[in-house]
């Protein structure tokens, strides 16, 4: 599905998350808080893959299965609940409503920007169209992998599925 090795892919997310967090945090005089929020929004956002794994397989964790993305192959669905553009306007509105509590506001802003940078870099790295990271779009197609992936990517998905099933 993706052609960049996973450690490199994750390193890109990690470095961008720290950079966004530090730069934005520094702008608000809260660099440490910025780095924490940047990492949560820009790196730990991927924990929804773990959540998806447990919802498909129950409480039996197998790291190799997880790294193969078998939660997607077994269900033929891609939920990725945290990966959605739609959260950004909601979170930014929340940040504005909480603007009197500066630390909370900064935390939410950096979390949001970190998440947006993560989604944009995922789209570029995985060659996904931007609509893939719309939760409304995924919900409309019932989170079906065959709708979300391009025909070539879906063929590769099926090949992997066949490989693991045999
Ligand atoms: Zn991601």
Which descriptors apply to this entry?
166 residues, mainly alpha, 10 helices, 0% strand, elongated, binds zinc ion
Order of helices and strands: HHHHHHHHHH
**Percent strand:** under 5%
List ligands, each type once. zinc ion
Count of discrete domains: 1
Rg estimate, integer Å: 17 Å
Transmembrane segments: 6-25, 32-58, 78-97, 104-121
Protein name: Metal-dependent hydrolase
Organism: Candidatus Falkowbacteria bacterium CG10_big_fil_rev_8_21_14_0_10_37_18
Keywords: Membrane, Transmembrane, Transmembrane helix
Q: Could you characterize what this model shows?
A:
By secondary structure, this protein is mainly α. The protein has ten helices and no strands. The chain has one domain (6-165). The protein is 70% helix and 0% strand. Helix 2 (31-42) packs across helix 7. Zinc ion binds at residues 45-46, 83, 118, 122.
In short:
This is Metal-dependent hydrolase. With 166 residues, the chain is an all-alpha fold.
List the helices and strands and how they pair.
Blueprint: H1 6-27, H2 31-42, H3 48-57, H4 63-67, H5 70-75, H6 87-97, H7 102-126, H8 135-140, H9 145-148, H10 151-165
Helix pairs in contact: 1-2, 1-7, 2-7, 6-7
Bound molecules: zinc ion (ZN).
